[in-house]
User: Fold this.
Amino acid sequence: MTWISTYQTEHFPGVKALWSEAFPNDAPWNAAATSIAEKLRFQPDLMLVALEDNHVIGSVMAGYEGHRGWISRIAVLKSHRNRGVGRELLVEAEHRLAALGCIKVNLQVVESNSQTVQFYENSGYKIEPRISMSKLLSL
Assistant:
């Protein structure tokens, strides 16, 4: 049985392993130790894990800054994909964002990741014509 829960420190090894599998070529600033520590400082209730027999099989980070919500770092173990786990994580994150007053959720997907784009389109998300920009403030 799978259930969605708010992240707890004992979930760290499972999330780290999940992210290593899901994001093998990730930038150093997205490392689990860095990202999770920062997430827990702000809106820790929006860091969620999917658990099966107390093992982490999926995770998602969400955020709300008072204007828009964001979904990021959604991942499901390869061995558990296509079972609805990602959708459950997304729906729970959306419910928690809505409870905070969020009316619009944004997310970013690498353009070449057509499988993930399809997942979000099937979940009701639309592609918006935008230019994504970023700036590293420190490493």
